[in-house]
What we know:
two-stranded antiparallel ribbon; binds guanosine-5'-monophosphate; binds magnesium ion
Amino acid sequence: MLDDVARVVVSERQIEARVAAMAEEIASFYADSKEGVTIVTILTGSLVFLADLIRRLPIRMRVALVTVSSYAGKTMQSRGAVLESAILPDLCNRDVLIVDDILDTGGTLRLVRDRLRAESPRSIRTAVMLRKRDKAPADLPVEFVGFDIEDEFVVGYGLDYDGLYRNLPYIGVLKPELYTTESIT
Ligand code: 5GP
Ligand code: MG
């Protein structure tokens, strides 16, 4: 599996240092929140980031899960985000932090944010591990960002290609011959 990686984009050490710094930013942002924060995480890609992040957050917090699908199988282009399921606690008047793996076109975040707004939370903020520098839409502000990266398809640290590579401890690009380009139907 390690042979499939052409290039490391963000190393394990870089991830560790940045997640620790993000956790500090987030913890101080919510330091005065009595109820603490409810983290709504977008499965499946955010699992690894979430697990690392929350263990570094010394604040009151709860976790809720939503599943959004946009990339099916060997596709590398979003087919439009669809909310598959949402297991949500009462979010009324809560401070909500959406945690996602990567901000690309913003379709996923927009969908989840609109769904959460309907629950009347006190605030909604967003944290993403990665953001594609030239693609993230200007009208979709994200308060906490791990790394800005080039517009290329990355795997590892939770991110998959055809369900694989989520367990890589770093973020990288696969060898080009492994990506089969599929046309969108
Ligand atoms: P968006 O809806 O912003 O276009 O895409 C966000 C979702 O698409 C992410 O949560 C992630 O699941 C997936 N995605 C976007 N870019 C990449 C990428 O480079 N690699 C992988 N593995 N997934 C991506
Ligand atoms: Mg995702």
